[in-house]
Amino acid sequence: MSEAYFPVGPGLGLEENFLSLDDILMSQEKLPGRAESTLPRLAFALGQGAGTGDSIPEGSNLEIPLWLAKGLHDSKRRIISVELPKIYKEAWRTVFSADANVVDLHKMGPYYYGFGSQLLNFVNPENPEIAQTILQASISTNRFRRIMDSSQNAYNEDTSALVARLDELERALFRAGQKGLNDFQCWEKGQASQITASSLVQNYGKRKFTDMDG
């Protein structure tokens, strides 16, 4: 019997993949912002009005879902302005630079990497520093390597405490590593006829061929 849903990986860039449940959930994360002009009939949708026809006055502070902030943000028309969430500000970037391995990313933001990448859609002088911090947190500190090493050395063990500090992308990597290890163990014991490529590898291959065709 085939699966009812085949997981689709996140977009991992400036644009979401709306076939991905992770990206759909990530797009609901809220950004602090400010109304630079009156926003007609949006008060109720943003929890600031009693009726569907209420408007948000100019100058109001907002908590805007990412998907709506991207739709309203226009540097020329100045409809809204967007502020950085605290975990992407300079103080937290300093913490990540010191040692990203000690940070509980899931507590600070379950979609730290994906959400941070989406922030680059908004005009902000700190964008280069944000991009560098995201890259450093994942690669320069060997955080991803430690995650994969842990996934390969925790066979048949309780890993709940281990993954509690990971963001959703890191958890997906950990699960992929665990699945690969489990599949190999089954194959080694003669319980599987062949080893198949992980869905992450298959999706990457499909994306690569699509880019080549374009």
Automatic annotation (TrEMBL):
Tell me where in this chain the GINS subunit domain is found: 89-187
From which domain of life does this come?
Eukaryota
Tell me which residues make up the DNA replication complex GINS protein PSF3 N-terminal domain.
20-72
Coiled-coil region(s): none
Record GO biological process: mitotic DNA replication initiation
Q: Name one GO cellular component term.
A: GINS complex
- For whether the record's keyword set contains Protein biosynthesis, the answer is no
Give the Gene3D superfamilies listed for this entry. 1.20.58.2050
Q: Does this UniProt record's set of keywords contain Nucleus? A: yes
Matches recorded under InterPro entries: GINS_A, GINS_bundle-like_dom_sf, GINS_Psf3, GINS_Psf3_sf, PSF3_N
Q: Where in the cell is it found?
A: Nucleus
Subunit structure, briefly? Component of the GINS complex.
Which purpose does this protein serve, as stated in its record?
Answer: The GINS complex plays an essential role in the initiation of DNA replication. Required for correct functioning of the GINS complex, a complex that plays an essential role in the initiation of DNA replication, and progression of DNA replication forks. GINS complex is a core component of CDC45-MCM-GINS (CMG) helicase, the molecular machine that unwinds template DNA during replication, and around which the replisome is built.
The cross-references to PANTHER family, in alphabetical order and at most eight, read: DNA REPLICATION COMPLEX GINS PROTEIN PSF3
Family under the similarity heading? Belongs to the GINS3/PSF3 family.
Q: Can you say what this protein is called?
A: DNA replication complex GINS protein PSF3
**What species was this sequence derived from?**
Calonectris borealis (Cory's shearwater)
Taxonomic path = Eukaryota, Metazoa, Chordata, Craniata, Vertebrata
Gene designation per UniProt: Gins3
